[in-house]
Amino acid sequence: MTDTVADDRAAPFRFEYDPAALRYGPNCVADLDSELSAHDGSRALVVTGSTVGETAAVMDPIEAGLGDRLARVFAETTPAKRLGTAIDALAAFRESGADAIVSVGGGSSLDVAKVLAVLVAAEREPGAVGAELVETGTISVPETGLPPIVAVPTTLAGADLTMVAGVTTDPETCPVESSVSGGISDPKLMPAAVCYDPELVATTPRSVLAGSAMNGFDKGVETLYARNATPVTDATAMRALSLLREGLLAFGDGEETDWVYQTLTRGLVLVQYGISRAGGTTLSLIHSFGHGLTRTYDVQQGAAHAVVAPHALDYLFDRVDGRRDLLADAFGVADAEDPATAVVEAVADVAAALDLPTRLRDVDGPSREEFPAVAEAVLSDSFMANAPPGLDPTREDIEAILDAAW
């Protein structure tokens, strides 16, 4: 069982990456005004959800850090990532005289912020934008005029250093004729800066943080075995997994120290570095399962990952090398007699420590009769293109993994 990335000592690679400016540290949001200034922003619209928007422990430091650069707070984002929400945010952006955006919270708020930036630059009627999304599944990104986005994550999902955004339509909330789910991808959607403040991460409810953490953790796992892995992403993913595993096991044990949140936040920074590039992403098999299980069912993304990841990895290691030695190194189990088994157990241990579901029957997902349709969705997911060389799953293979997870 070998693949072409198992031994990379002489493998050529090209790494093109233009990330956001990264700022990390306790209370680093105190410098939001200077970060905004560095990216030519004079007044910012804060885009967030209602829960975060009502959490003083988050919003007070954000507003103090922005000072006179705060134009207004728009606290109306939802997990649905609706185009209608971005259209409402556009009105707030214009009315407040903003010229920059600060996204606070999880991936949903950042996705809405990115769609808002596209709307600001497009200067098109919302109806025309909605019609394009319904017809093509995406929205064209203007060459110029996008306001800078500064992201302030409060979860561990790892949605911050990306150049993509999900978006949905709903005829009841925006001028379209039908409901669709789509996405935007363009290097210009990479935030100008991301401020990782462990003190804000610590304000997030444990259950929310646990689910988001499994999503971010699996990004590191997949980055190592992805078809387009590079020595750069190997290095950052390995260190990220080491930090995240250590921090998540302590978090699962109930430890609430500054060290835990600082360790988790540093791991979050590293796990994302280089995984979303102009030439593609390193996300692969596990995330394809996550998409297949969450796009048409109410199961939460992190819960889907917790359930399926050990079984997907079992299947992967049975077919290809899957960089098992690097993964074992990252998890501190390099001396194990069977590195593949040790890696699967390490991933399962993290899910168990986070008290996440371990069986598909225990989440609000598909019935066993629906597995063929889920398998088709998994196989058609764009992330499957990043599967390791030599891994060519069939629908029967995917159904068997789902059945094992049941």
| Helix content class | 40-55%
Mean pLDDT: 94
What's the helix count?
Answer: 16
* Strand element count: 10
Low-confidence stretches: 2-6
Structure commentary:
- This protein is of the alpha/beta class and 406 residues long.
- Helices cover 48% and strands 12% of the residues.
- Strands 1-8-5-4-2-3 form a six-stranded parallel beta sheet, with helices on both faces. A two-stranded antiparallel sheet has the order 6-7.
- Strand 9 (276-277) and strand 10 form a beta hairpin.
- The longest helix is centred in the middle third of the chain and has 22 residues, at 231-252.
- Its EC number is 1.1.1.1.
- InterPro entries: ADH_Fe/GldA, ADH_Fe_C, Alcohol_dehydrogenase_Fe.
- Keywords: Oxidoreductase.
Compact description:
It is an enzyme of class 1 (oxidoreductase). The chain has 406 residues and is an alpha/beta fold.
Chart the SSEs and their pairings.
Elements: E1 21-24, H1 32-38, E2 44-49, H2 50-53, H3 56-66, E3 70-77, H4 83-96, E4 100-105, H5 107-122, H6 126-136, E5 149-153, E6 164-168, E7 181-185, E8 193-196, H7 198-201, H8 206-225, H9 231-252, H10 258-272, E9 276-277, E10 280-281, H11 285-294, H12 301-319, H13 324-330, H14 339-353, H15 371-380, H16 395-405
Parallel strand pairs: 1-8, 2-3, 2-4, 4-5, 5-8
Antiparallel strand pairs: 6-7, 9-10
Helix pairs in contact: 4-5, 8-9, 8-12, 9-10, 9-13, 9-14, 11-12, 11-15, 12-14, 12-16, 13-14, 15-16
